[in-house]
Every structure is written in C-alpha cells, then in structure tokens.
Amino acid sequence: MTLEVGARAPDFTLTGIDGRSYSLSKALEPGALALVFFKSTCGTCDLTFPYLNRLAQAYPDRRWRIWGIAQDPPDAARDYAERFGVKYPVLVDGEGYPVSQAYDPPATPTIFLVDSDGRIAYTTHGFSKADLNELSVAIAGRLGAAARLIAQKHDGQPDFKPG
User: Fold this and answer.
1) Looking at the whole model, is its pTM more than 0.90?
2) N or C, which end of the chain has less CB nearby within 10 Å?
3) What band does 1 get if pLDDT is binned at 50, 70 and 90?
4) Sequence-separated (6 or more) residues with CB below 8 Å from residue 120
5) Is the bond preceding 158 in cis, omega lying within 30 degrees of 0?
6) pLDDT in tens, 90-116
C-alpha cells in the first residue's frame, strides 16, 4: 500500500549513478528530502523532470534535497539524467526494486516529501502543475522562504497527465 502523509518513511541506502552511497536517514539530518520515483520509459516523467529541475534551482538551500530513484538499470538511469540535465542525485533501485516495494508508488512519477523527522509530509503522482506548485510551497515553508511558482499555466505543457 502506498505510503500516505504522516507515515514513517522506510530508511534505505542506494547507490547513485555517480557511484556514491546515499542513505535516507543521513540525508534527513539537515532537513527535508523529496524522493522522485521514475522510469526512463515514462512519458509522464519526461513532462515532470524539467519542472523538478526548476524546483531544485528555486531553492538552493542545503536544508532540503531532491533525489531521483530510478526503476531502471544504471546505464538507463544515467542516460535519462543526462538527457534531462538532472543536477541532483539519481539513485538506482536495486534488483527487485526493494525501495519501490517499500514505498509502493502508484505510478511514475511519484514524489514523496519526507520531513527531517522521517515522516511523509506530502505526496503526489503523475504530472500535475498544481501539485508541483503545492510542493514548492511546502518546501518554501520549511525553509522560511518565499514560495516560487514552478509550473505556470499556458507554458505549452498540459496542466495534468496521469502517470
């Protein structure tokens, strides 16, 4: 069953496409973390990643982070990250997708915002401009920053697309 707001986020350690090891519990020490579950063959993910890049650029504060979690082999995840100019860590879910099984995302992409206390604070799946802007507000609130508009209407992309 998909994790809901308020649920404890299962801890994990995965290897990134950069060869480094990434641990959820260590990453939460300075602040919140957005986990983005995706597949390189997901058209809805293709719509979402440019907005996620904008989100990462809008809040360069180190008190929050964003990680992509690929449900793909390392080479496919690396190619995808390069194609979309992803500058934040992209991790590869292991054989059998243990982290995906623990979080049970209903679609790709699925985003979980995990607070520093290890609880899910926000979740969304598919592509939704409104949800991406809500996520931006949630991150800004945690940083004490002014919220930035991440997804504008009439920018040539649909307002919503299911995953």
Assistant:
1) yes
2) N
3) confident
4) 3, 4, 5, 6, 7, 8, 9, 112, 113, 114
5) no
6) 999 999 999 999 999 999 999 999 999
For each of the domains in the chain, give its residue range(s) and CATH number, in order of start. Answer: 13-150 (3.40.30.10)
* Contact by Cβ (8 Å): 135, 148: no
Residue 27 makes CB contacts below 8 A (sequence gap 6+) with 33, 65, 67
Which residues neighbour 38 within 8 Å (Cβ) at sequence distance 6 or greater?
45, 48, 49, 68, 69, 70, 71, 80, 108, 109
15-38, pLDDT tens digit by residue? 999 999 999 999 999 999 999 999
